[in-house]
């Protein structure tokens, strides 16, 4: 998921700080999620999708195709 979120954020031309501002969180929160140190739940995924501007269903499809570590 972290690679997916980074790809979507960069495709949208956004910085971590800009995403964080839309999420009303600190930039370090976005960095922690993108770095894989923190997992997000479905509600947070929906918030990321809205903040960045991608379809959350695409993220769920991506998750279903990723093999577990």
Describe the secondary structure blueprint for this structure.
Elements: H1 2-11, H2 16-23, H3 27-34, H4 42-52, H5 56-65
Helix pairs in contact: 2-3, 2-4
Largest sheet: none
For the secondary structure, the number of strands is 0
Quaternary: single chain
Low-confidence runs: none
Distance, first to last CA: 12 Å
Structural class: mainly alpha
User: Fraction of residues in helices?
Assistant: 55-70%
Q: What count of helical segments does DSSP give?
A: 5
Task: Briefly say what this structure is.
The chain has five helices and no strands. It is mainly alpha-helical.
Plain-language structure description:
The chain is mainly alpha-helical and 69 residues long. 68% of the residues lie in helices and 0% in strands. It contains five helices and no strands. The longest helix has 11 residues, at 42-52. It starts with a helix and ends with a helix. The model has no long low-confidence stretch (mean pLDDT 93).
What structural keywords apply?
69 residues; 5 helices; mainly alpha; globular; 0% strand
